[in-house]
Amino acid sequence: MPAVQFNSRPEMTRSDAGTVKVSTWDVGTPERQRLTVEAIRAAWAAREWPHPGLLSYTVLTGEDGKTLLHHSQWTEESVHREFARTGRDERLAEIDAAVPGIERLGLRAFELYRSGVKQDPRKPGCVVIVDIEFDGPDPARQRDWVDAVFEALESDPTPAPGGISAHFHVGTDGTRVLNYAEWESAQAHIDALAASGGGVGSTTPQWHRVQNHPGLKRSTVRRYTPALSLASGL
Length: 234
Hints:
- It is a single chain.
- 31% of the residues lie in helices and 37% in strands.
- It has six helices and nine strands.
- An eight-stranded antiparallel beta barrel has the order 2-4-3-9-6-8-7-5, surrounded by four helices.
- Strand 3 (54-62) and strand 4 form a beta hairpin.
């Protein structure tokens, strides 16, 4: 197996990613966020990359000062199941020994559906996670909502200047959409929200359709700072 490679950010649009896993850990404080990221780095650096079917593993620190978001890309679901069975526990044991009391808040499976990426040399200083939940499973509705967002973005007369990319994932259970959006900075996202008064986007019929889509149950928006991104070494 190859060694671990430390990257600045994941390659979100790679075509060989068949499934994406997203989970959140609550570690309690900003200091424990820092210590947990260090423990993750050490646990992975001490071992070879576990499987060629794991494409990337990225950790983000929450602006709330207590959470970490984990995003990983896999070639297929069976590879993740194999890792969970054979390679996950020893890494978690080392992390838990370094930072006891981590609360793990669940794991969700997604597939990347559409991405919008600017030809932009800026590296993201902030990742905004938008979690959309619908009132029941409906894969067609998930994709219709994402398509409506792209229509709103493309027709927006004053697009937010601080956005770098947006990667829309549909949940495999049919009930959720997750947007992994890269921004120049947290302040750029804050400014975009303040400019519109009701979310990122102008007051247009297209954005009204997005915000009032049939079956839309709730949406949450959380900001994170990129902390660690790993991939298989060459």
